[in-house]
């Protein structure tokens, strides 16, 4: 399990007629595991209750008060059942604390040679009782792959890593702020969305007219110190290929102003108008700046695809690595489980080992290739793939999403722009779902297998409608 930078609340359940030593053993197990994994724990001290366990209503109040003091830090709660536990104590703690964070329920397994009164746990049964009470209280919770599992078991390590991903997604999406820079291009009805539905789900959109950005950029000159700094940043980021120096300066000026806008408004992601106002009114593509934002873990999408960049942010939270906005673009010969992913292109350079700043030939046919420098060229090699898309379904007033896993391959692909070949089980069935349910032509890719994290976060904790493509 990789090192985490996260804080979890911990509730150790106890029931008085089971051996108290099991509580102490569980405490030691969890603290050791957290120390190895870089997780901070908020839990009762051994002196706060009987060995720091939660059993009575008084214990629950103490634990809840402790959690409330650390509400801003706690991203999730781990419920540990070294024995049957007191289901009311666990439920009361979570109810009183009212953290509204993900909860993972773990129960210890019994050993066949230790089913005597001095050693038995009965956590198998106790876990059912705890879940029953949480269900009654309306508290959402997650389960381990095995009904009971020791914290040192490899299966539980996988459970915990997935749970931490769920915590990151839920916490990150509760108050995310997205910059919508410019108007949606007229030709892209597909990226329409509802600000009101997003706001209802804690997602804020901060708008800005593209003319304000371009006006500020045009006031900057090549001798401006900040322009020089951003120009150096661009040179250090990617090979400039045959891109003219004046185009690189244009890109640097734009990057200065975009960064200012993001900082001033404390934004987590952005979606920028590109096609075709930027080229016609300013003379370059924004792709390089978007790529640098995304590589720096600030997702950036084109065509003012706000829910597209929200999807990028969600996949980034799940995996801890950058995401890219792509088109479901082409079939791959006659292989029904493969397709071409493409953009012209603004993918984070994590996806592009051969990254080069170039131009956009397709867009150049209408606005002039000389006005499209800043687009990136590069091929994404084989890797794990998680794909996903979040949308507002405005006619139904809901948030919806689809997610799944597959692979990116090294199959031959002779074209330009940002490109990849994806292999997805039952791809044809997935495309039917996308089309029948009115999803956009844009999807998000991430070099991971984290669709299970996203599904649990979106559906269980955020209450969105989710299709998890299994193939």
Automatic annotation (TrEMBL):
Keyword Isomerase: yes
Keyword flag Ribonucleoprotein: no
Keywords, alphabetical: Carbohydrate metabolism, Isomerase
Sample GO molecular function, one term: isomerase activity
Coiled coil: none
Organism domain of life: Bacteria
Domain L-fucose isomerase C-terminal positions: 341-468
Matching PANTHER family: FUCOSE ISOMERASE, L-FUCOSE ISOMERASE C-TERMINAL DOMAIN-CONTAINING PROTEIN
Protein known as: L-fucose/L-arabinose isomerase family protein
